């Protein structure tokens, strides 16, 4: 059979009919029936013989041929080819004729063979007699037999046989070898022709294929046939065609001269592995099935949903659909009116879609316009209407079958019930979802098979492919097995009670609980609006929890503070679509719509409230309730400093938000607690005897450590050593330091930090200021005639921090009620202001008329005057508080009268102490009077030293007070200083030469003046504490003490480290007198050695045995300057012998003590 | 067989069995050159509409079916030369499929993807 095909296709271009009737080539020998063959041959021979006379006449072609020709002549382009064909055929005809003749002979030959092959039985029977017979006889007999057989068979038989043969031929076409072979075995091999890709003009691919076909065809019998095997194009591969050929030359020849081929783009060989995919490509087929939903693409129904009702003519490109018509039911008059207004009938007004109603239409269009059809259908304007729907055959091209996404509303209209969404044509909806199912399925989804063999099967999706999904069955016989089902017969399954989220549609992102499942429609109770929502199961997913569906960028965000009315505030705990869930200040939770509330655009950052301990709290602080449930949370909002809204995500109620009263909260994290106000109350301390002062310890050093924040520091230890940074926060003993170099914030121990002066670059100890300032530290300032003694140092070091603090501390320690003022507002003391104003002392004190004497205020104001100085102290005193007096003092200090104060102060100092002391001792009344007293009694000594100090040029001056008065008469300074301290600042502050004051511990003014004056760079080398808290220049404060020579303790000094290269190191000297910044010292070993040794080289000589007379050079102001006798040593501390007025034994650190030289 | 088509492809219909492309008129007058035995479309417009389709994809101009891999892949290597579609959408009437199977053949839809 295949032989036959082969023969016919390449060589014989004739049609089947033609071929069948035409004589056959000799190869036909294999045809089954020789008789039949003969028959045919005979017939044909006759025909041929008939033909012979009019050999050249074409008209003897058969009918089909003629028709073919007619057809061909129709088309111009075909003409040439037609002619060609005709010629060819003619030529062939001759050949055939010739062959026919031959064939006759051949056939006879073959008959012999066939006979041998065939009539087996007959010949077997005949053979026996034949054996004896002659060969020629056999021939004759055989002829007879065949003739006889021919006669036997009637025409019917022949026809039947013919038919059978053709039938076999036909069926063979579908039974060929390759038909049974799976396509994967048909993959191209190396022996197959190659494919060549040619780029052509887009849209012309089929035409070009056909052109090439014709071209190849026309040249196949020419001298140079084009050996192209096939040409094809794909709709999905626009702009290219593929030629199958064995050689590229054939391709070039084939495409040469064809219009629309881009020769320049070249011809490329398709790799063998890409050949099959070229033909495999599947056009996205429009799979229209009855019941499917489509959308109209054209006409006035554009966008309308339609349902496929009929696909019988799908191969003709026509599909029957039904849809809701849009018939213009405008009354005729109105339409006329409209037309008159220029709005034509064909205006673009789209009539509303509504079901066809016979009565309505008849009313408008007239009875004759509507024709009744069979089964209650109507014909109106050539369209058929059944049950109100328009049923129409439309071209497939005018409907859109992809991404139809019918909504429930649309579908419900088709189901005939406009109003209720409860009634659904479930199958219709299922159909609607068919195309969409796969895209919304994900592995893990619970699904249910609702059609096909596996109907009712439940399972979880394992894998998803476009058409088939594998599900792991749950329950039933196949439990646990993985079963493949068509994806379109599967729908998501949800159980009542499940919590789901809507993925698509107008309710997208809503969450809710499934309350009903009906086929594909799931009803859920929304978490948000608490209403029922009906959704397709394909549009929902199981949701783990209630998602916050807040749309970012909305007006209200979670945790926003809103106002319900002018007095009621609430916090948004949840945003649910259009609803806000809020918690109001009374703890009530409710849902409101955004228009029921107003947003309170507070700046959260500034909202503060005071907690139960009086500490303030801000948004972001973690607070704890100290009553009730003891809930803890982060402050998210504060309303009127009363209601605090907190959030803790561990609480489920109200999404973790709760409200509490500020007064019932305490900080959950230890905070830099402001110490008990009571402790700061000077009145309490006043009543204590002298020693009682110590009952009020200096405020913890971490008080207000925040002041360090934003301080420029340098790291002195650790890995970051040497790096500069800014303190951003203080956490206990650590600071968060934001490094300048890389913007990193590190936690570094405070002890590893040093303050850095921004301008000079000089570094200072971070806490040195306070240490000195507070003076409460052992070994620090120590007891001094002037409680402010410590201040200068501090002042010098931390100018900024100091102003407020130092005095505060100082005042806090001293019984002076005004001291509190220094604390800067923490006490109710009216002087607070003054204290704060301490930085601008003049007004402060001036205003504080309560200060001992307005004179001081004046003094402050006038202080500048004292620069002129020169006035004698007497005058100053006489003036009773006129600062000028001080000024004079200063001046005096300045050196004009080397020791004016020495005299003046000395005596007064000597005198004052007693009364003052007693005053304190009895805890006499309030400050006012004490001040008065102080002022009266004490001014002198202080006036003296302070200015002196300030004007410090001649160190002699400051030293004077010491030399002159009762040197260490403890009480004196004690009593006196305080009152003076107060005034002084004024002067100091306004003092034009503040820097100078630095070195002297007497800088009573300093604490006040401190901030500015000492901050100055001039102070770069400002005093610092020596090891043990003793300032390096301590020696300048004392005389008649035993000192030891050692390395310089002055920070940043330019002097050599050792005095006279260490000649006297370790040697002890008696401190005789102060010369500038040096001390005249007499060697204890050799009285002839008298050296002026700079104070920086001098260290105190600590007591080493009981019974030694010592002076307290460090420690608190209450001790400093006291002269005592050592009694008992214990671990570096000395207990002093009791003295009159002592309440308890005084124990001092030995580092704070210095032996007195000449007792 | 004269090559057909190419002018306006909308006029062409594809045989649902062998996917050959011809004009409706050709199908009417000559039937399918390959499958007429089974389809018997000649002279019947209705039968032509049933057994051929307007919806097809791609076009193959098959010149030497016996040599062609394309033809083998498309299972038209034993068919006439001519113009074929790569894919044809539609299903022939049931009797056609039965007829093919009765002759021991296999009906392979022309719009399906084999593997």
TrEMBL record, chain A:
Residues 803-1007 form the Spt5 C-terminal domain. Component of the SPT4-SPT5 complex. Interacts with RNA polymerase II. Residues 877-896 have a biased composition (Gly residues). Residues 34-44, 56-81, 101-118 have a biased composition (Acidic residues). Belongs to the SPT5 family. Coiled coil: none annotated. One of its GO terms (biological process) is regulation of DNA-templated transcription elongation. GO terms for cellular component: DSIF complex. PANTHER family: SUPPRESSOR OF TY 5 (PTHR11125), TRANSCRIPTION ELONGATION FACTOR SPT5 (PTHR11125:SF7). It is found in: Nucleus. Gene3D superfamilies: 2.30.30.30, NusG, N-terminal domain. The SPT4-SPT5 complex mediates both activation and inhibition of transcription elongation, and plays a role in pre-mRNA processing. This complex seems to be important for the stability of the RNA polymerase II elongation machinery on the chromatin template but not for the inherent ability of this machinery to translocate down the gene. This is Transcription elongation factor SPT5. Residues 287-314, 440-467, 493-520, 616-641, 706-733 form the KOW domain. InterPro entries: KOW (IPR005824), KOW_Spt5_1 (IPR041973), KOW_Spt5_2 (IPR041975), KOW_Spt5_3 (IPR041976), KOW_Spt5_4 (IPR041977), KOW_Spt5_5 (IPR041978), KOWx_Spt5 (IPR057936), NGN-domain (IPR005100). Residues 1-118, 831-912, 935-962, 979-1026 are annotated as: Disordered. Residues 983-994 have a biased composition (Low complexity). It comes from Kwoniella heveanensis BCC8398. GO terms for molecular function: mRNA binding; translation elongation factor activity. Residues 84-95 have a biased composition (Basic residues). SMART domains: CTD, KOW. Residues 1-24, 45-55 have a biased composition (Basic and acidic residues). Keywords: Elongation factor, mRNA processing, Nucleus, Protein biosynthesis, Transcription.
From TrEMBL, chain B:
GO terms for cellular component: chromosome, centromeric region; DSIF complex. Keywords: Centromere, Chromosome, Elongation factor, Metal-binding, Nucleus, Protein biosynthesis, Transcription, Zinc, Zinc-finger. It comes from the Eukaryota. GO terms for molecular function: RNA polymerase II complex binding; translation elongation factor activity; zinc ion binding. InterPro entries: RPABC4/Spt4 (IPR029040), Spt4 (IPR009287), Spt4/RpoE2_Znf (IPR022800), Spt4_sf (IPR038510). Signal peptide: none annotated. It is found in: Chromosome, Centromere; Nucleus. Residues 12-89 form the Spt4/RpoE2 zinc finger domain. Gene3D superfamilies: 3.30.40.210. GO terms for biological process: regulation of DNA-templated transcription; transcription elongation-coupled chromatin remodeling. The SPT4-SPT5 complex mediates both activation and inhibition of transcription elongation, and plays a role in pre-mRNA processing. This complex seems to be important for the stability of the RNA polymerase II elongation machinery on the chromatin template but not for the inherent ability of this machinery to translocate down the gene. Component of the SPT4-SPT5 complex. Interacts with RNA polymerase II. Belongs to the SPT4 family. PANTHER family: SUPPRESSOR OF TY 4, TRANSCRIPTION ELONGATION FACTOR SPT4. This is Transcription elongation factor SPT4.
